[in-house]
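Hi R.,

Here's the chain you asked about this morning:
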Amino acid sequence: MPLMNFGKVLVPLAGLVLLGLAYRAYGWAGVALAGGAIVMFLLMHFNRTMQVLKRAADRPIGTVASAVMLNAKLKPKATLLHVIAMTRALGEQRSPKDAQPEVFRWTDGGGSWVDATFANGKLSEWKLVRPEVPDEDASQQADAPSADAVKPGATDALRPPF
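And here is the predicted structure, written out as tokens:
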């Protein structure tokens, strides 16, 4: 039997308790004040959600600037909305629609990707996959001179100043 998400029940219940306490303490003026605070709280969250989705609408689905950086920034129990805000793009859905857990993929320009698994809207695990580098490229990089190597005639740069 799956565990129930108590946040879906406790948050509205807390709002009702707040309204009841406001009525008991200040009457209808307290209810108006508490109701206004609750509506303001809901509008702030709605506005944040719309801003995140507006930014994500301008990018192709499933793209990210750097999959490696996304992998480094991900934290367990992050919400899907938080990950979309980080990537500024909707993820490409890899799991069947409306099935739990949900799997989304974000790919960068280099061919690397991150598969993120969300259980009940919270990030449970993720995996970074990087493409294999052909052996020919590795041998060419080994023959290339290092940027850290000292160039001929540059020994004066290594001396300490007087």
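One quick note: The chain has a mean pLDDT of 85.

Cheers,
M.
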